[in-house]
Each structure stands twice: as structure tokens, then as C-alpha cells.
Fold this sequence. Notes:
Blueprint: H1 3-14, E1 20-24, H2 30-38, E2 44-49, H3 52-59, E3 65-69, E4 86-92, H4 101-109, E5 112-124, H5 141-147, E6 151-160, E7 166-173
Parallel strand pairs: 1-2, 1-4, 2-3, 4-5
Antiparallel strand pairs: 5-7, 6-7
Amino acid sequence: MDERVAAELIADAVGEAGSIWADIGAGTGTFTRALRSLLPSESRIYAIDNDPQSVVELRHIGNGVIPVEADFSRDIAWPGASAPPLDGMLLANSLHFVRDPDLVLRRLVRLVRPGGRVVIVEYDRRAANPWVPYPIRSRRWPVLAEDAGLTNVRVTARTPSQYTGELYVGVADKPT
């Protein structure tokens, strides 16, 4: 998927949700770049990935993107003293890598300010495999989000996956 298609896919979910975001499990930055194109020019995006080579790639994005080498399934060592209050968090094709996404999402949601937004991109209708070891089907998204304390849970987009099944975009808000 290229940056333009990724931006179209997540645009409705991101909406007008502020200017400090984290892209959790950013990889080499396809969705980071997509998010960057949707946010105001003065925005900051913390692009978090545990692969050192991916972090090198993320450093080339610039324009308010702050790469952070960290395993998001554990506590993240943020640049500076502590985590910034996030207006939004994107988890694009990353949450399906953790065995206990409920626990991880609950911990990550604490980083989002009240009124902030959490967006996921995940595979639907796909069996577990080495690339998607713990699939999160769209019917599970509302339960996962509500258990993490999120509200207004919905799916905003779907698209066929080039790898089988389809991708969906789930979004939810942190109550004020």
C-alpha cells in the first residue's frame, strides 16, 4: 500500500483530532507519512517501532516526525522526561503482533488525552499466520476498544487486502 492509498483509508478516522499523535508500530513509515499528510503542518508524530532499521527509515521523513525505537508491547521510553499527552494514536497493522492486545491497548490508551482518538488498521477475515499471528477481526474491535475505556467505537473504512481478506479501519474516542 502506498502513502496516498493509506491516507485515503484512514482520513475519516483521523478527522480533526489534534496535532500530537503517535504511530505505534510504524515500520518504515507508510502510515506515518499518510498521517503526516492529514494533520496540520505544525503537528508532531511520534513514530514508534522496535526495529532499528525501520527507525533509520523513519528518521528520513522529518517534518515533525519523531522516531522512537521501542517495543510498544512494553513501557515506551519517550524522548524527554515523559510521554506527551497525545491527541491521537494510530496502530496500523501492529496490534495483531501482540498476544494480549487487550492489555497492551489498555496501557497505550492511558497516553491519549481525554477527547483524543485511537485508530487501528487491521485485517478482517484472515486466519492467523506468521505475518498476522493474532488477528483482530472487526467484530472484536468494539469489545477491545470498550474494554480499554474508549467510546464511540466504529469502523470507518474497509478495503480488499492484497494478501487475502480485507483491511478495516476502526476508530474510537477517549471520553472527556
